[in-house]
Design brief:
Layout lengths: L2 H15 L1 H13 L7 H17 L3 E5 L14 E5 L5 E10 L2 E5 L6 H8 L2 E3 H10 L11 E7 L4 E7 L1 H7 E7 L9 E6 L4 E6 L11 E5 L7 E3 L5 E2 L4 H10 L4 H20 L5
Parallel strand pairs: 3-6
Antiparallel strand pairs: 1-2, 2-3, 4-11, 5-8, 6-7, 7-12, 7-13, 8-9, 9-10, 10-11
Helix pairs in contact: 1-2, 2-3
């Protein structure tokens, strides 16, 4: 079991015993969409890092921060440390709507060109073995992505983790598909033995933007390759008091923030006392 897999297994156990903790956290995260359509993504990084520090005693989390972006070795938003084994690993947080999900930006534009070199259809044991052994795809299973998926119309959310290893093992065919509905660039789509969609690699030219390249999947079309850490969909409600708190905090002084922090700490301790933490 990889360090990240061990972490998500422990997270799933914690949530199964204390669903109220993650329901509160995700409700607050997606409430941030009332402030701005992209606000929730940045705040999710801070919230999940703090969730880990408060409720997962054997793990510690550090929010990497945007200022370190250019120095990042991996695509990461938070770094997690297992306090028992001392293993450290990066995690990329994704707060996406239910549908297309980017797993890797492939920032060096290598994946699509490599597939092009191998042809329009890649299949058979030898062809796939050659692909997985290539340095461009050797770390296909090492992307630690924690997707917070939301369905705004139904006001529900889900933490869905893509099973890279299963996807790799069950891929039987990779096919080049040209331009399609709503798509200007070709993609290589991965399919399993039943002909079901697994994931895709999008056009990788240097002129392509972040949404036109990299490794992608789809939370609905590729649903059987996801594991729900939350045990399925969680219904959430917008926390209007949180929005008001933010508006007041932005014009308050640090002494006011300090007083509010003391009350928030008391609330967190109360939640811990009524929970079974692992």
């Amino acid at each position: 079991m990889t360090p990240y897999k061990e972490f998500t297994t422990r997270l799933k156990l914690l949530i199964s015993k204390n669903p109220h903790l993650i329901t509160t956290t995700l409700s607050n995260i997606f409430t941030m969409r009332l402030i701005g359509n992209k606000t929730h993504g940045d705040l999710a990084e801070i919230a999940i890092a703090e969730f880990i520090n408060q409720y997962m005693y054997d793990f510690r989390s550090i929010h990497v921060g945007k200022d370190l972006y250019r120095a990042k070795e991996h695509e990461e938003d938070i770094k997690i440390i297992n306090e028992i084994t001392k293993a450290e690993f990066p995690v990329s947080l994704k707060a996406y709507g239910d549908g297309p999900l980017q797993l890797s930006t492939d920032k060096n534009f290598l994946m699509f060109p490599k597939l092009q070199q191998m042809g329009q259809v890649i299949q058979g044991h030898q062809g796939l073995a050659t692909l997985w052994a290539d340095s461009v795809f050797v770390d296909f299973s090492t992307h630690n992505v924690l997707p917070l998926i939301y369905d705004e119309k139904k006001q529900r959310c889900n933490i869905l983790v893509f099973d890279h290893e299963r996807a790799k093992q069950e891929t039987t065919k990779i096919v080049l598909e040209e331009e399609g509905k709503g798509r200007k660039h070709p993609v290589y789509r991965f399919y399993d033995g039943a002909g079901d969609y697994i994931c895709e690699v999008r056009y990788g030219s240097g002129t392509a933007n972040a949404l036109q390249r990299g490794l992608w999947t789809h939370t609905r079309n590729g649903s059987k390759y996801f594991d729900s850490v939350t045990g399925g969909w969680i219904t959430y409600a917008h926390n209007q008091i949180l929005v008001k708190l933010f508006s007041h905090a932005l014009i308050a002084t640090s002494s006011g923030h300090e007083a509010a922090m003391e009350e928030l700490k008391k609330d967190l301790e109360a939640q811990k006392k009524m929970s079974v933490l692992t």
